[in-house]
Amino acid sequence: MTAGRTRRPGRAVSMADVARLAGVSSQTVSRVSTGHPGVVESTRMQVLAAMQELGYRPNSAARALKLGEFRTIGVILFTLATTGNSRTVEAIAGYAAQEGYAITLIPVAVPTQDGVLGAFTRLGELAVDGIIVIMEVHLLDAANLTLPPGVQVVVVDSDAGDRYPVVDTDQADGARQAVQHLLDLGHETVWHVTGPAESFAAERRTQAWRRTLLESGRFVPPVHRGDWSADSGYRAGLALAREPRCTAIFAANDQMALGVLRALHEHGRGVPGDVSIVGFDDIPDSSSFIPPLTTVRQDFAEVGRRCVQGLLRQIRNEPAGPGTVLVPTRLVRRDSTAPPPAP
Amino acid sequence: MTAGRTRRPGRAVSMADVARLAGVSSQTVSRVSTGHPGVVESTRMQVLAAMQELGYRPNSAARALKLGEFRTIGVILFTLATTGNSRTVEAIAGYAAQEGYAITLIPVAVPTQDGVLGAFTRLGELAVDGIIVIMEVHLLDAANLTLPPGVQVVVVDSDAGDRYPVVDTDQADGARQAVQHLLDLGHETVWHVTGPAESFAAERRTQAWRRTLLESGRFVPPVHRGDWSADSGYRAGLALAREPRCTAIFAANDQMALGVLRALHEHGRGVPGDVSIVGFDDIPDSSSFIPPLTTVRQDFAEVGRRCVQGLLRQIRNEPAGPGTVLVPTRLVRRDSTAPPPAP
DNA sequence: CAACGTCATGTTTGCGTTAACATCGCAGGT
DNA sequence: ACCTGCGATGTTAACGCAAACATGACGTTG
Fold first, then answer.
1. Cβ distance B183 to B340 under 8 Å?
2. How many Cβ atoms sit within 10 Å of the Cβ of residue B42?
């Protein structure tokens, strides 16, 4: 074993070590460390110098134990691979950091009930003051899971608004805007490529799509189901390309819209000349699709901010019962939509 | 204020509470909790029942304090918005979980030296046994940062292999494969859209591109610089589309390739008829580009796995000095490359 | 000039856990 | 019957920190 900078056989530098070197009590070191007042400048400098020399860094486990709070938020999700999730997590981490909270990531490998339960058990033992769940909360219920007492929860992508606070994009209004935009352009009706069945976001977008059509008295075409991936959108697009009545498509996310675009292109159906298409998310790439995609912009940063805000309110025991916060969306018009071709 | 399930005024359930209810000592509760042997089955059941009834969950701060380890890995990065980062982080989280480690995410808002320093200071105070840095480590050096002793580090996207262990995709070989593929198809030379200057990955891809051309005695065209985004690729593509000699392009990532694709399409330059293009990353969407993109596949999962492996080795004080692990890449041939047009 | 207040600093204590050691009871050998 | 040994369980102490309280050295004021 090398002697150099391997971990000391004993423990790391503690306040007592610093105190000894600086010639003060460890309480004074604590005061300097936490920035508490009542330490005269000269003493403070000595302590700081001693900290520097020894390479002291506070032991947050001890601090957490003493204070009874971890200043950490757990985030439980299935995957970071979707744009929405990774951007929401990034926003959560940013706002949490602003508030002095760290983020612990708990990805659930498989979206089964067991998987969720396992992660939650781990989270229960983990050093977190609260949890943000980015998925359909009914997967939790199905495992008849009792949340550990003392741990607060905020949920994204779920309709559990009566039981936990929920923060989410206003899926329904976004979908309505997309469909209405296509109807306003003069299309007879709008076809739809939805997301996976277990996604509540996909479910709500589809519901709003159907309702908007029905309210205008339009024909409701059969739904094509994808799994959020561009490949699944391509497969749906293949079917849609063969549908002569189809002049307008609402894809439940931009990636599936990309696949649809390719399928239409390969079948010689021009966009937006023959077929118009609207996506959902406004991922950065969508403005470089061929053609640039008209889509519904989600404000992931705002979703993240509201999550953290809501959770911290709970952690601090401020009044905020269950309820749902909806973050508005906005239709971004680009070049993938136009009036239908003359018959 | 609701009375229901708000946090108790006192503290959470502790081992002492469980011990009292079960009629045993708290040490026995500890033994049950940690699965240590030497507890007779009947006692174990009683303790388990008491835990259940009180909703006991171990306090990991106390455990960490006692044990001197947090079983947590910190991940410091600029953003989750790039495919590479989010997929690497996801892989890291997965493998870490397998080893019983949690992941704490530390995003650095702005890639300045101050930003990095701030995050690292926070990390120093954070409950982590080791850190994975996903960015160019020289940004750390510039802030003349001394790593806190006792905290182990592994780095991604950096050439600091002489000072810290580095795990990375074999950028150079990937770029070489891309360029060689285009040369093999008969192209005179290969034009290049690079990434941002501060990215070491971009730098290495560009170096390998240049070296491969020079080794074949080809003309080295001027470099077009992007920032990884599709929009920046589009701008580069606009310039490239006006370049009549340009028949082959190597874009440093798939998103910029997407932008180039659109620029070429808008200028009536066919892909791969007139111009061939190769990307880098193999993001899931790239198989749905128009046309599906030939690209260099990175194995992000493997990068994540090696990071965790290397870091845990260090944490456990197993022999593993500084050094670089290169994860191989593979060229994925799709429809965006072909021989150059006849002159 | 004595009593008191104020401010800097020190001492004590306990947060929840687990390692190390102590104890207790019982089975088996003499 | 008595000791031995072992397996199950209990007791003690310490991890590092910060709140609460204690001390002590001043300066101020009636």
1. no
2. 8
Taking the C-alpha atoms of residue A74 and residue A330, their distance in angstroms, rounded to an integer, is 30
Q: For residue A136, is pLDDT > 50? A: yes
Nearest CA-CA partner of B271 in B331, B343, B338, B193: B338
Q: Which pair of structure tokens corresponds to residue A49? A: 């110098």
User: Is pLDDT larger for residue A299 or for residue B112?
Assistant: A299
Q: Which of A79, A127, A290 sits opposite B290 (nearest CB)?
A: A290
Give residue A117's identity as a one-letter amino acid code: L
Start-to-end CA span in chain A (Å): 82
pLDDT: which is higher, B122 or A120: B122
Among B151, B8, B173, smallest CA distance to A148 is for B8
Q: Taking the CA of residue A157 as centre, how many other CA atoms within 13 Å lie in the half-sphere pointing to its CB?
A: 25
* Distance (Å) from the alpha carbon of B292 to chain A's nearest alpha carbon: 9
In this prediction, residue A12 carries a pLDDT of 79
Nearest to A285 by CA among A96, A125, A101, A83: A83
Select from A103, A233, A319 the Cβ nearest to the Cβ of B105: A103
Q: How far is the C-alpha of A343 from the C-alpha of B153, rounded, in Å?
A: 65
Residues of chain B with pLDDT under 70: 1-11, 109-124, 139-150, 161, 320-322
Rounded Cα–Cα distance for residues B321 and B310 (Å): 10
In this structure, what token pair is assigned to residue A187?
């299309």
Q: Note the CA–C1' distance, B23 to C19, in angstroms.
A: 22
Which has the closest alpha carbon to B93: B80, B81, B103?
B103
Distance CA B126, CA A72 (A): 10
In a mutagenesis test of the B interface, which of A18, A80, A288, A315 is the best target, namely the one with the most B β-carbons within 10 Å?
A288
